[in-house]
Design goal:
With 320 residues, the chain is α/β, with parallel strands linked by helices. The chain is built from ten helices and 15 strands. It starts with a strand and ends with a strand.
Length: 320
Amino acid sequence: MSRRIVFEQPGPPEVMRLVQQDLPAPGAGEVRIRHTAIGLNYIDVYHRSGLYPLPLPSGLGLEAVGVVEARGAGVTGLSVGQSVAYAALPVGAYSSARNYVAERLVHVPPNLSHESVASGLVKGLTAWYLLCRTFPVQRSQNVLIYAAAGGVGQVLARWARHLGANVFGVVGSEAKREIALWAGCEEAFLLDEDYVSAIRERGQMDVVYDSLGEISFERSLDCLKPRGMMVSYGNASGPIPPVAPALLAEKGSLFLTRPSLADYVSSHQDLTTGWQALSKLMIEGVIRAEPSQTYALQDVVAAHHALEARQTTGSTILLP
């Protein structure tokens, strides 16, 4: 049996409910994982609300850590009792146990806790592809990070600083400004300030990592230097309206991309490369991924309310 969160129609957090279901034996190429910690990510809100539609009824959650309990036919390189993690489709991480494709798992080294990996796998892999693949950040480049006190934002700030970049942040409150500075930003500006003018005084940005979407898009473009790159990787404030390509020319021959994690870890090699880079920095202490908030799985409705209300900082995990 497995306790899992399901929803039958898109909507507010209250559409989620906890059920108990039979869990079949793992199929060929699969293992059964007993979850020990589950990551909470903003994409879960997009799935639940219907912004990113899923076939319904559906489970929820992309990220979890646990222990292998059984192996299906053909599985090699994994043993019962081994600690593993994943951060990809199909959804269903909001559960006490599940079957998952073995080749999409990463090994969790013994010197990393399950809670830290559940806090940092999706967020860390996101930071890896944004900083190392989408726009490979170089020393002394200017980087602007939105929601710099959030889970992804803090990892981005630390990693970009580690690469030698000049890191700036945008946050939603004075308390979050302090967190962004602690995470590695040289300066952090409030979203309701005239931060565009302040940033342009300090030097235009080579790249902007914007997870807010509608509320900040045009201001993000105004922060970029000519031929800079606008990386829109989230829609926390709502989707960006249609963009005329001529606007990018008017603002300095800018580049615009809308990447997603799934496309950057679609192969086993890419997933392994990203995890090796991330886990190395976690073990060295460059990336700190301990959870800032913890909820029981049955309290997932409250966790989603807090996430959407911007009441969380850093990472949040669910405990099954």
